[in-house]
Specification:
With 76 residues, this protein is mostly helical. It is built from four helices and no strands.
Length: 76
Amino acid sequence: MCTLDLTERELQLLRHLAAGRIYKEIADELHISPHTVHAYVRKIYTKLQASGRKEAIKRARMLGYLPAKKYSSNPV
């Protein structure tokens, strides 16, 4: 079952995940414990039917929860 009603807080955490932040960084930024971050992330994965960060971010982009990935025109 895919329940896509992400809360504002879940969207906030999803944006941090997409930015590449680790749980400790997210926890410090949002003034919550890393355990609470983990609980939110598990809920996000369940709602997006994702098994990990990359899959969750990909699905969130496909569903419009995150902006499409921007590609650099200058190869590095």
